Amino acid sequence: MNCESLRDSYELFVFGTLEGPEREEIAAHLQRACPECSAGVNRARVLATNLGSIAPPVDAPGHLRAHIMRAVVQATPRMHSFWESIFWRMAFPVSAAAALTLLLVVFGLGREIGSLNLELKTLQKSAADSRKREQVLVSRANAYRAALALMSARESREVRFGPGLKPNKQPDGRVYLNPKGLVMIASNFPAPPKGRTYELWLLRKSTKGAEPAGVFDPDASGGAMHVLARNINVNDIAALAVSDEPPGGVQERTGAIVMVVPVTGMTR
Amino acid sequence: MTGVLLVFIVVAFAVAQAYGSSAGDSQARRELDRKEVAAIADGDQAALGRVYDRFHRLVFSLAMRVLGDRSAAEEVSQDVFLRLWHRAGDFDASRGDLMGWLVTVTRNRAIDTLRSRQHRESSAWTPMPESLDTAGWLATAPAATGIEAAERVGKMMASLAEQQRKIIELSYYAGYSQSEIAELLNLPLGTVKTWTRSALAALRDACR
């Protein structure tokens, strides 16, 4: 179609209501920048704008402006300032680095605390061992002191016993008897049976009975020292005996007698 | 007839109040439009507010004229100004004018709403493109928009025969094709075409 035949259709084309082949024809003319059709359509657009502007005036509701501005605010992504942008860009890596650092610190501290706990336990055990050793030493020192006091006391009496009493590796040694207690120093004591200890007995003249006088264990070389620090009636003791008993000793003898030392012929 | 003429005079007065009163203002108005749309493209909400203040009556009135429903006209108006907010970056002042764009978009949206409401589907409805330079294939911006041209068009509309005016109104404000109008008015299609042609010729002359 030529431009002449399309002339009356420009307005309906602009209105969007043109039917038939004219619509495609005008579009094609415009596509190839046809000057006559472009001018015609442009004039039709002016008419369309003027028709739109002569609609009977009606006031828009007062709230419409606020609605639109609110919708605009909601539809607009918030613009960040330069520093805000930097902050949000760095937020994740910085947070991740901080979290990782914190994790490492916590892990390191955990290990350090674990190590310190282990060290503390070792030290506590060492201190307990030291205390125990100290108690043993103190106890032994007290025993030696008591033994020395008893051995050097004027009223103490000495009873010797030894290989002469029984053959073959029988313990030998001395017993110092004193009204305030007794001391036994011996050697060649065999180790007591497993799970047993030695107990000293005072055999009474008056009652014919045996009175427990404490337990002791010989050392690895067979040496033994036992101190009984309580008052005893020396004159009523007929003999001393040693038997093996359960740990801690018993009130009535149960084990085998290892040796018997008659208290006769006391010296000093 | 006198009543219709009076209505168009009142309308013309309102348009004059809203869009400037003389052709000499046209250039200044276009420059203002260019600045305002550029500001809107930069995210200036106050500029959108100023454009709303200048054109909301035009937009709402046209939407009301098409739809006859305040609630629907509000929705269309909101849609038009939001579209301006989002598409302002496309505006080329050398190729189109803001008022023409607002009228085109408002009419298209309103007729779309009307057709959807009426369940009217027709391949004849092909609204104008809505890009802010109006259309890439259009040569220059229209010069004959504004109060004087609108007054002349308004007077010419008022002076048309009732059936002719009805046909133009159905075509422009309701988006009916000529065959749809013929069916709606129970007129022969040839008659509708003839009356349309003569009415448009008169209106075209009024725009010059």
Summary, kept brief:
The complex is a heterodimer of chains A (268) and B (208). Chain A is of the alpha+beta class and 268 residues long. Chain A has six helices and eight strands.
Report on the structure:
With 268 residues, chain A is of the alpha+beta class. Chain A has helices at 3-6, 10-15, 21-31, 35-53, 63-75, 82-152; strands spanning 157-161, 172-178, 181-187, 197-204, 210-216, 224-228, 237-245, 257-262. Chain A is rod-shaped, with a radius of gyration of 59 Å. Chain A starts with a helix and ends in a 6-residue tail after the last strand. The mean pLDDT of chain A is 88. The model of chain B is unreliable at 8-13, 15-23 and 132-142 (pLDDT under 50). With 208 residues, chain B is mostly helical. Chain B contains nine helices and no strands. Chain B folds into two domains: 24-145, RNA polymerase sigma factor, region 2, helix turn helix motif (Rna Polymerase Sigma Factor, Chain: A, Orthogonal Bundle), CATH 1.10.1740; 161-208, Orthogonal Bundle (Arc Repressor Mutant, subunit A). Chain B is globular and about 55 Å long. At the A-B interface, α2, α3, α4 and α5 of A face α1, α3, α4, α5 and α6 of B.
Topology overview:
The complex is a heterodimer of chains A (268) and B (208).
Chain A (H helix, E strand, L loop, with lengths): L2 H4 L3 H6 L5 H11 L3 H19 L9 H13 L6 H71 L4 E5 L10 E7 L2 E7 L9 E8 L5 E7 L7 E5 L8 E9 L11 E6 L6
Antiparallel strand pairs in A: 1-2, 2-3, 3-6, 4-5, 4-7, 7-8
Chain B lengths: L1 H18 L5 H17 L3 H23 L2 H18 L10 H20 L29 H13 L2 H13 L3 H8 L3 H19 L1
Helix pairs in contact in B: 1-6, 2-3, 3-4, 3-5, 4-5, 6-9, 7-9, 8-9
Assess the beta-strand content of chain B as a share of residues: under 5%
Q: Would you identify the CATH H-level superfamily of the largest domain in chain B?
A: RNA polymerase sigma factor, region 2, helix turn helix motif
Radius of gyration of chain A: 59 Å
- The helix/strand series of chain A, from N terminus to C terminus, equals HHHHHHEEEEEEEE
Low-confidence stretches of chain B: 8-13, 15-23, 132-142
Counting structural domains of chain B, the number is 2
Give the overall average pLDDT of chain B.
80
Kindly estimate the percentage of residues of chain A that lie in beta strands according to DSSP.
15-25%
N- to C-terminal separation of chain B?
Answer: 24 Å
The helical percent of chain A reads 40-55%
Biggest pleated-sheet summary of chain A? 4 strands, antiparallel
Please give the CATH architecture of the domain at 157-262 in chain A.
Sandwich
Number of helices of chain A: 6
The CATH architecture designation of the largest domain in chain B is Orthogonal Bundle
